[in-house]
Amino acid sequence: MAKDRSNGEDYTGPLRRLLMGVLLLCLLAIFLVWRIDSPRVERFRAQVTDALVPNLEWAMAPVTGFVNLIRDFQSYQRLSEQNRELRSELRQMQAWKEAALQLEQENARLLDLNNVRLDPRLTYITGVVLADSGSPFRQSVLLNVGARDGIMDGWATMDGIGLVGRISGVGKNTARVILLTDTTSRIPATVQPSGQVAMISGDNTAAPPVEFLENPDLVRPGDRVISSGDGGVFPAGLLIGQIAADPAGRLRVRLAADYERLEFLRVLRHHGAEPIADPSQIVKPAQGGETSDISEAPDG
Q1: Model's pTM, two decimal places?
Q2: 71 lies in a domain?
């Protein structure tokens, strides 16, 4: 057995050296042929290239596919990074959009305040609403203007369109506004175009009822309601709203002021108003259906 192994080794060794020598000679010949600058050799090289290179596409297919896979992976990485950047920019843009919408709404409300047509004799102070009462039994808001700004009890307040309420309670830096919807509010009004005089009485609803109409048959839904100025507390001609009828047929006022977005209020300086020593006496509830007490100081 040992002798057979030695015979096999003696046979394969020379054969390996022979093949190696032939391979080297072939490679040397190819190198020499490829380096010879001769027209015939050049034509031969071109024929060999035309014959072999197209047939090697199947061998290059895995390499080409691997290279394309690497390029696709790199492209996917770039897309992923761009996607993260776009998501971050989108979040920033959404925040900027929300801030822009808030500024746009605030600007629109301030423009509404500036566009209100008032009596040239009236001046005003614009205040910011700090808080509301948050009670179903009392409708009021707190402004950031007070006695230091010359605010007085009984002065009317408006938003960008219509009458909101009156000042009832003044501090050094703040003032309380009783809204028209409050149950203690009584505003003498005129219904146009009929000229009917009425009383707008708050009942803690968004549409206060119209009371003490002289002739209800002359009033129609959609008629304009303004302050009459009776009593000398409120100036006349301030827009309150429009007449509307509830399902029961009772006449109410659809208020012109936007009570859902009370952020800025205009306090009207009405120096012709009667001085008020006790704010609680601005409104005197009617006794037994009579209006004599209300007519004395009705604007509130």
Answers
A1: 0.53
A2: no
Q: Is residue 65 part of a domain?
A: no
- Residue-wise pLDDT tens digits, 127-175: 888 877 656 656 889 999 999 988 988 899 988 788 999 998 899 989 9
Is residue 114 one of the residues assigned to a domain? no
Q: How many whole angstroms separate alpha carbon 268 and alpha carbon 123? A: 6
Range of the domain at 151: 123-296
Q: How many domains does the chain have?
A: 1
CATH number at residue 131: 2.40.10.340
